[in-house]
Write a structure and sequence with these properties.
Length: 335
């Protein structure tokens, strides 16, 4: 039986682990399919407070992990594929292992959608990025591409025009999913050139692991064009990692878990943190902040419930939750 089980080992999960461990709750962290989360896929992080010279993403994550272990957090490799949240203790299953948890913090993160090119995978963190706020600064005075046709792509193109000398906005259709105002803003930006309808066939790199350009194919004529540039921002959306929680924890229309009143969900004892509940800010520091909130909320919850017989408060809560889980989101909202 664990006081706290934390699903996910990115910035949010590790910060929750540090706080829960320091509160003597001996949290168990289940790593997930990408141990360390999105930071482990980046290179230099220059906007995490406290590191004036910047710090490598994997190093920042390793430091957090060491810090959590120092206070007694336990780590297990594995991907959670099943949760039973209908009664406490909650049952968390990762492969062949099942864990009992008095409280659960879901910090499973979100994964940036990728184009699926081998060259993109190889050059991720070396000229290919999924985060303009994190990496834009490295492309001062350089030409880059932003791929995508949604609000993120438009927003990133505008944001990156502060740094880059030119931005090729590459989208596979002539129509955009982005809102009118965002498209107009990007079109009015002198540095942005729209390349549509175009499919990125290859990200070109020269031998030393840096981006050299892209090869795009016109979606209608098939004409191929090579564009010389130094960076590629893939902005084709994110998917929250919520497969195991679907239908169990309330989500918004885009599948993100909903946090209310801090990190709480509609299930007493289940808390959420990081990108799995945040499609807006998606920063290491905001994920860390929400991880801290979730640990404090879990600690408070345990304080309030510890010592009470499970049948008293726990079961009445979970009966209430079962009704909520089976109710459409709109009804839950007004309940
Ligand atoms: P999105 O709206 O889902 O748009 C994703 C874009 O990427 C689409 O244009 C899509 O093309 C393209 N795409 C998807 N898979 C692709 C692939 N394999 N190859 C090439 N292109 C691909 O995602 P988002 O832009 O990240 O926005 C997510 C949500 O956040 C939206 O609700 C958005 O309004 C919101 N948001 C709001 C703001 C703001 O208001 N400031 C800023 C950012 C995001 P197709 O259109 O052809 O499918």
């Amino acid at each position: 039986m664990h006081d706290v089980v934390i699903i996910g080992s990115g910035c949010a999960g590790l910060t929750a682990a540090i706080y829960a461990a320091r509160a003597n709750l001996k949290p168990l962290v289940i790593d997930g399919h990408e141990p360390g989360g999105q930071l482990s896929l980046t290179t230099m992080v220059e906007n995490f407070p406290g590191f004036p010279e910047g710090i490598l993403g994997p190093e920042l994550i390793e430091n957090m992990r060491t810090q959590a272990k120092k206070f007694g957090a336990e780590f297990k490799a594995g991907v959670v594929n099943e949760v039973d949240l209908t009664r406490r203790p909650f049952k968390i299953t990762a492969g062949k292992d099942t864990y009992d948890a008095k409280t659960l913090i879901v910090a499973a993160g979100a994964s940036a959608r990728m184009l699926g090119l081998e060259s993109e995978r190889k050059l991720l963190g070396y000229g290919v990025s999924t985060c303009a706020t994190c990496d834009g600064f490295f492309f001062r005075g350089k030409p880059i591409a932003v791929v995508g046709g949604g609000d993120s792509a438009m927003e990133e193109a505008n944001f990156l025009s502060r740094y880059a000398s030119k931005i090729y906005l590459v989208h596979r259709r002539n129509d955009f999913r982005a809102s009118r105002i965002m498209i107009d803003r990007a079109r009015a930006n002198q540095k942005v050139e729209f390349v549509t309808p175009a499919i990125v066939e290859e990200i070109l790199g020269h031998g030393n692991g840096a981006v050299d350009g892209i090869r795009v194919r016109h979606a209608e004529t098939g004409a191929v064009r090579e564009i010389k540039l130094d960076g590629v921002f893939v902005a084709i959306g994110h998917d929250p990692n919520t497969t195991a929680f679907r239908g169990k924890i309330e989500t918004d229309a885009n599948g993100y878990l909903i946090a209310k009143n801090g990190s709480k969900t509609t299930i007493p004892g289940v808390f959420v943190a990081g990108d799995v509940q945040d499609h807006r800010y998606r920063q290491a520091i905001t994920a860390a902040g929400s991880g801290c909130m979730a640990a404090l909320d879990a600690e408070k919850f345990l304080e309030e419930h510890e010592g009470q017989p499970a049948s008293a408060s726990f079961e009445s809560d979970s009966a209430k939750h079962q009704a909520v889980a089976a109710t459409p989101a709109a009804t839950v909202e007004s309940a």
